[in-house]
């Protein structure tokens, strides 16, 4: 049986297929531009309420779930994804043009992410329990017992990305962190990989059923993009939104959410050129520099996954010096050795061509190296350009993100020019320094500027390849994201879907488990301002 | 020397008086409607940049300040406020009509709040340090060293409230938490208590100078309200806003902040009717109920500070029963025994009259008890009304906040009517239950509903009198605040002015102190997901 044969082609709403009433849509294999069966039925706006009402209905029980069954559910979803792994990877290859190794790795990242959040749920620190015990004898007024915990915000809408059909899509970081927070999730399926979405959605819905949870905990809806997206964000049952995609798409959702009678937060990860600064020491052979290796690593970061990574370096600042010239020569050779890989969709490839044509046509911008187109459709030749800081500062086109394998080298003369260029950058997901200790003085001037510009700062590495851990920040000031106070990757992402509630003077029989004096969930709690590992109040 | 004689009547910008170019304004004693000298010069919009540029300039050094001098600064501000305490209280009495005991208590709360944040700064948990150590041997790919910390967002604009001239104003909770986070602050002075503002502003500015900090750390600006407020919120140097005041004022700032080229968060605490639910057990004499005491406590909460508290109970739900009738009779007696107190301004008193007249004129709303006007100007008679649930559900006027000593008793018959009324409420700062264990079943149905409606849930107490501690939440879903993910009172308020930054593979010589391996600030850190009390990595 082929993968195609098992696909139903419909939304999955509260565990059941729902046939859409607004026509159908079909995805295309970007390597051939051929349509991929089956066609997907699209929900009409008034059908969405089935999913959102079920999510709202599921909230009461799911938000109060004990840690162990809650964690088990996330683990079961990971297991189901693994069981369907070969079908998922096969279909994702067809739908995205991404190579098998990349998708296999991405599946592992997706299941690893679910398991990491299962561990977070078991540990429970995200519940943020704070206890200020009563002080009946305090003068002039006694203090009541006050307890705080973080509660889930309510049902969450998730919009997946085209470039990560697994890790930032149906069961990706937004979904995993929202489910871990205790929020039911309604995912809007991405039109470019509907079959992958269905296989993943089924794995999650099956986990909901297998663990005996309310089926409204998870739904996956297919619909005509902007229309159903807007309807989802403005549905009163939805209380927060996670989005990964374009700046225009993200800003449209932000505006829709702000215009609601009750506005809700939108966590949109949008656009970033991820500046890389090469300081002089990093090109110094006496310090062990190897410009060929550096240039090859740069091109690998620019061209990996056909350049379609949120953290791909779109701008590299290199010194104007003899060694800088040698580095730019090495970049040229590395670019010329690169071969195009299939992009995600024909539309994305067209947008890449438009962006590259526009950049190349700017005064003062020259080609610094062009590779070879790939053998498939939609696999344009990787392209690197070069300009100087004055040109960069004078023309905002040079800072525009080009989604795909393209990058701009900006040549700077001295620290002041470098700081001027960095100071003009918009908010970014990442900023990278290549340096040695000889560059420390310059780096110390740059660091405070970069901290205000970016969510993650790297040294002597490349920003692509985002680690899923506790310390990761995949976020950053606007317009990298719509809300620079958070991250969409790593365990801190769970905080996006929580809000604090305080309980004052509640009798024990009414207190929710996390804040009960007998601490049945063995949570670390902040007592009178001091963190204390799990203990009951009687034991203190 | 009188208090008036020491007032300069100008903005304090980066430690220096700045004479405004946009005319002057004078406050009035609300007890007499007489003008209060001096007139205050108002900044023209283009003068604001002096304050915001100084704040931006101060950011680099202030945001990197070590814990001890940082905490000392906050303590020094508290000491300066105490030294000026009698002048501050005397002027605040004139400007607000609030009684001495209330203002003396509020000053203690304000200084206590600064000291609490000094303790938070010394402890350092708000820096949220996370360390995922490198795993060079991990397969298939090594893991880089990744470290995360919370950094201050940048300069913050604060808009104080009329009803707390100290604790929610120039050196109030927003200012204290922003300064504790490491953000320079520009306060827009409230026009109703300009002299109090100047005395407090001077105490803070003197602390900045005495501790040798950059003078741009704090400025206090007087200006024509909406105009300067809007200019402040749209100034590119400002990165977050704290506001306490009216719904219309808060929403105007939210809209202005969202329309910036780089939008910023606005934490606006706006409006709340703070529902109180009296369950049948709380009226049962066999359970120890004393309806007269309960009614007197209700009226005390309604009328305290002339009813001008964000958490005053504007709605009380009481059962329709004989005991409920007895309680409403007791409320009538308590209301009739109450005397009006001076309101904050003549305008606020007019708005109170308009609100009370509108409420009293609604079909199905009856007076349940009216007190006596006070002897001063602007001291209207406390007023309580009564209606049934059907009337309440049919007419949104009954849920509108009336700022001042007025409240509405809504009579309910049975749990379903009660849940219908509670379910219809907007977002609230607080929700209160009066109950005994006999009411547990009903309370358990109510609690999950209230958790989604309110930031703080109380039992058998009154919502007025907000404790400043670690577990407090003074916030809540829209429209109680513009951002229900936070609190504006208590130590968690500091999180509003922080954002995470990750450092990947940075050499030790570049790492900021909080994330250095030798942990010089002795911070508790989350290492590979597990909280660890201060230790260095070498020691592990």
TrEMBL record, chains A, B:
CDD domains in UniProt: ALDH_KGSADH
Entry keyword set: Oxidoreductase
Pfam families membership: Aldedh
Domain of life: Bacteria
Key word rRNA-binding present: no
Domain Aldehyde dehydrogenase span(s) in chain numbering: 27-475
GO molecular function list: oxidoreductase activity, acting on the aldehyde or oxo group of donors, NAD or NADP as acceptor
Keyword Hydrolase in annotation: no
The name this protein goes by in its record: NADP-dependent aldehyde dehydrogenase
